[in-house]
């Protein structure tokens, strides 16, 4: 006869501290899963990109505002305010800056989408885009430096090292900012691509296994009752591949009862591994028993 061995231990009632620690453990699992989510890293990178881009545009606009005054001084000269050209000179640098900003926006968008900027004719390393930026910023540099180095006669202005330095450095900084901004956009785009999850068509791992280890239950569960025989049955001879599976009536009553209890405990159909683990029979015979039970179900 088979006897049922009850391995369920007596579970003491949990204390309030144990329940509190278990709840904290669940919270730690949730926080870790959220902090390591790739989409959270992408959102954080996008926020930093927007902040850095706005700051760069603001400082670029401030530098262009300074150069606008220098360009106006260079072009207006001694013209009176009543002269329309005096007012028109204020529009030269904003027009050049508008072209530059529009060009930078286009270049940043192309590079962020990994579209190569055309370089013009084959074999040329410098294309029309780079030439246009150099002409725009070179014009600004010349029109800011010339009035500083050669003041107008009768203006009373003197050449000072500080004024010359500022009028040279600021246009150069504006040019370098214009060169760096597309690189910033490209760097953020590549960083976001590294954190973008990619679906693997050959990956057969269940989603629950990829998410990490299973969390501990809030309520401890008792171990399942495992029926064990008094004495293990003698190993059966391995079945030949051509041997038919034993019928349900050919299975001994004790073995059939044990398999029925095992199936009820597991709540599913038995596999050959389940039968081998419970009855300690050869693999071939376990497969035949599993097939026989599946046909009889």
TrEMBL record:
Protein's UniProt keywords contain Secreted: no
Q: Which UniProt keywords apply?
A: Membrane, Transmembrane, Transmembrane helix
Biased-composition ranges, Low complexity, are: 219-228, 237-246
The residue ranges crossing the membrane are 55-72, 84-104, 162-184
Q: Where is this region: Disordered?
A: 192-249
Keyword Nucleus present in the record's keywords: the answer is no
Recorded superkingdom: Bacteria
Name this protein carries in UniProt: DUF2637 domain-containing protein
Native organism is: Kutzneria kofuensis
């Amino acid at each position: 006869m088979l006897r049922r061995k009850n391995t369920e231990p007596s579970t003491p009632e949990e204390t309030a501290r144990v329940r509190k620690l278990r709840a904290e453990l669940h919270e730690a699992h949730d926080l870790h899963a959220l902090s390591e989510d790739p989409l959270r890293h992408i959102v954080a990178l996008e926020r930093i990109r927007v902040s850095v881009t706005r700051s760069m545009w603001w400082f670029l606009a401030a530098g262009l505002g300074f150069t606008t005054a220098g360009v106006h001084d260079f072009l207006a000269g001694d013209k009176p305010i009543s002269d329309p050209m005096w007012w028109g000179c204020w529009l030269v640098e904003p027009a050049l800056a508008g072209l530059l900003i529009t060009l930078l926006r286009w270049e940043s968008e192309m590079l962020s989408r990994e579209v190569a900027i055309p370089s013009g004719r084959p074999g040329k390393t410098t294309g029309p885009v780079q030439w246009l930026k150099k002409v725009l910023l070179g014009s600004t540099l010349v029109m800011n430096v010339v009035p500083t180095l050669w003041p107008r006669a009768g203006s009373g202005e003197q050449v000072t090292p500080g004024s010359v330095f500022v009028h040279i450095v600021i246009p150069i900084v504006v040019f370098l900012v214009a060169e760096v901004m597309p690189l910033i956009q490209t760097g953020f785009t590549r960083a976001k691509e590294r954190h973008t999850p990619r679906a693997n068509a050959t990956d057969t791992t269940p989603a629950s296994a990829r998410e990490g280890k299973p969390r501990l239950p809030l309520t401890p569960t008792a171990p399942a009752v495992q029926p064990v025989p008094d004495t293990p049955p003698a190993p059966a001879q391995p079945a030949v591949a051509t041997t038919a599976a034993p019928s349900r009536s050919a299975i001994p009553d004790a073995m059939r009862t044990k398999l029925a209890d095992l199936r009820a405990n597991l709540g599913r159909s038995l596999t050959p591994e389940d039968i081998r683990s419970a009855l300690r029979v050869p693999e071939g015979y376990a497969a035949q028993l599993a097939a026989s039970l599946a046909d009889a179900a």
